[in-house]
């Protein structure tokens, strides 16, 4: 029997996790303080080193390399952001939408423009964004409600005016005509045709408690990241739920590897290319419909077990951690880290069992990563000290 010990005591992780969560439920000052405290506790990266190759254990058979990004450009308030505290990012065609502590920042034609409550948003703290492929509308999750941005106008949804489950919208997912949200009071489903909400909590779904932190769609299903409840799967055509939890129930170790989710405290889900990826504060896992596979910072190229957010695009998943950005196809890895003492850093690339370090100058703006999105040629990263854009290296 193999025991995978947690890198840091579970108590420390839980303390920071609750700082992040409850920081979001408090005032803007409390949110900023919580992030600063988390950064001081966890953020760190080694000094830049010369390129080198080192044999490492291969997780599976040979596969195509994971894309590597470079030529990084960093954006802060000096460049037009309303705040350096960036929580989420979404690429929308030729423009990029960034949720910050002080409003929505839109990057288009090389310039930033900010939208706040003065322009109609329900709250300036924006923590989730998705764009409808059906209509092109942007759906914006804030600390004070959900907003649909269409035709230059904001239409706001709150508990009081619409029946939404909760005003703390940690995750939003557009799925055809439907919009799904993960909130502090359960998951919600909004039918844009019928203009009606459905609410899912521990009363009508297999949740440990109503706190949900991430949500995604794929394969005719909705995947909800539930605090203390693992992953909740909802099949749309049958309207049936099932839950996936860590079978061993251990809080500090993964007692039986690859038996299910690595932990019941999940922070995000993302489905792509026939695979569900699940992040937690205690490691990473994926599920192909038959088998689970877990990954930790001790046995893979993962930057840290403490994962704030996850997004999968095609065969590659991007993990936002407290110690850098990691990407993987489940076999190969790329991790981006910034140096502590300057703006440079490195990309740690593991391809078919061989490790190589590529110097980056500059690197990502900060190692505490909270949001990410990628398309064919670029990757955008939301950090606690600005937004970074990387170009695909050919």
Q: If you had to describe this structure to a student in words, what would you say it looks like?
A:
The protein is mostly beta strands and 394 residues long. The chain is built from 3 helices and 33 strands. The chain has helices at 10-25, 28-42, 159-162, and strands at 4-5, 53-55, 69-75, 86-92, 95-100, 103-108, 111-115, 126-131, 138-142, 145-150, 153-157, 169-175, 178-183, 186-191, 196-200, 212-218, 221-226, 230-235, 240-244, 253-254, 266-272, 275-280, 283-287, 292-295, 307-313, 316-321, 324-328, 333-338, 345-351, 354-360, 369-374, 378-383, 386-392. A hairpin with a 4-residue loop joins strand 14 (186-191) and strand 15. Helix 1 (10-25) packs antiparallel against helix 2. The N and C termini lie far apart (43 Å).
Topology of helices and strands:
Elements: E1 4-5, H1 10-25, H2 28-42, E2 53-55, E3 69-75, E4 86-92, E5 95-100, E6 103-108, E7 111-115, E8 126-131, E9 138-142, E10 145-150, E11 153-157, H3 159-162, E12 169-175, E13 178-183, E14 186-191, E15 196-200, E16 212-218, E17 221-226, E18 230-235, E19 240-244, E20 253-254, E21 266-272, E22 275-280, E23 283-287, E24 292-295, E25 307-313, E26 316-321, E27 324-328, E28 333-338, E29 345-351, E30 354-360, E31 369-374, E32 378-383, E33 386-392
Antiparallel strand pairs: 1-20, 2-30, 3-33, 4-5, 5-6, 6-7, 8-9, 9-10, 10-11, 12-13, 13-14, 14-15, 16-17, 17-18, 18-19, 21-22, 22-23, 23-24, 25-26, 26-27, 27-28, 28-29, 29-30, 31-32, 32-33
């Amino acid at each position: 029997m193999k025991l995978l010990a947690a890198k840091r005591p579970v108590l420390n992780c839980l303390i920071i996790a609750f700082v992040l969560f409850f920081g979001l439920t408090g005032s803007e000052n409390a949110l900023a303080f919580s992030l600063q405290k988390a950064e001081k506790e966890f953020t760190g990266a080694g000094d830049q080193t010369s390129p080198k190759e080192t044999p490492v254990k291969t997780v599976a058979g040979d596969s195509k390399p994971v894309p590597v990004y470079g030529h990084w450009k960093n954006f802060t308030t000096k460049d037009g952001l309303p705040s350096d505290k960036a929580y989420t990012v979404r690429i929308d065609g030729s423009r990029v939408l960034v949720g910050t502590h002080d409003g929505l920042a839109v990057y288009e034609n090389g310039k930033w423009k900010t939208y706040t409550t003065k322009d109609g948003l329900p709250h300036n703290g924006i923590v989730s964004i998705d764009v409808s492929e059906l209509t092109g509308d942007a759906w914006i999750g804030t600390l004070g409600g959900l907003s649909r941005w269409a035709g230059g106008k904001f239409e706001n949804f709150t508990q009081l005016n619409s029946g939404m489950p909760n005003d703390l919208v940690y995750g939003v997912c557009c799925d055809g005509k439907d919009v799904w949200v993960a909130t502090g009071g359960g998951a919600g489903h909004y039918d844009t045709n019928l203009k009606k909400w459905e609410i899912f909590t521990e009363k009508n779904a297999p949740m440990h408690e109503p706190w949900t932190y991430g949500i995604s769609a794929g394969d005719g299903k909705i995947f909800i990241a539930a605090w203390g409840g693992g992953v909740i799967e909802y099949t749309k055509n049958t309207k049936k739920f099932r839950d996936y939890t860590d079978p061993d129930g251990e809080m500090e170790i993964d007692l039986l590897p690859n038996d299910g989710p690595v932990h019941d405290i999940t922070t995000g889900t993302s489905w792509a290319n026939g695979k569900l990826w699940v992040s937690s504060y205690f490691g990473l896992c994926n599920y192909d419909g038959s088998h689970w596979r877990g990954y930790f910072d001790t046995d893979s190229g993962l930057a840290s077990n403490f994962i704030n957010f996850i997004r999968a695009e095609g065969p590659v998943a991007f993990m936002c951690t407290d110690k850098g950005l990691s990407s993987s196809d489940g076999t190969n890895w790329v991790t981006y880290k910034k140096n502590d003492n300057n703006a440079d850093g490195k990309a740690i690339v593991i391809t078919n069992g061989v490790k190589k370090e590529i110097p980056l100058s500059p690197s990502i703006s900060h190692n505490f990563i909270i949001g990410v999105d990628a398309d064919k040629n670029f990757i955008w990263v939301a950090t606690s000290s600005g937004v970074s854009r990387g170009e695909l290296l050919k």
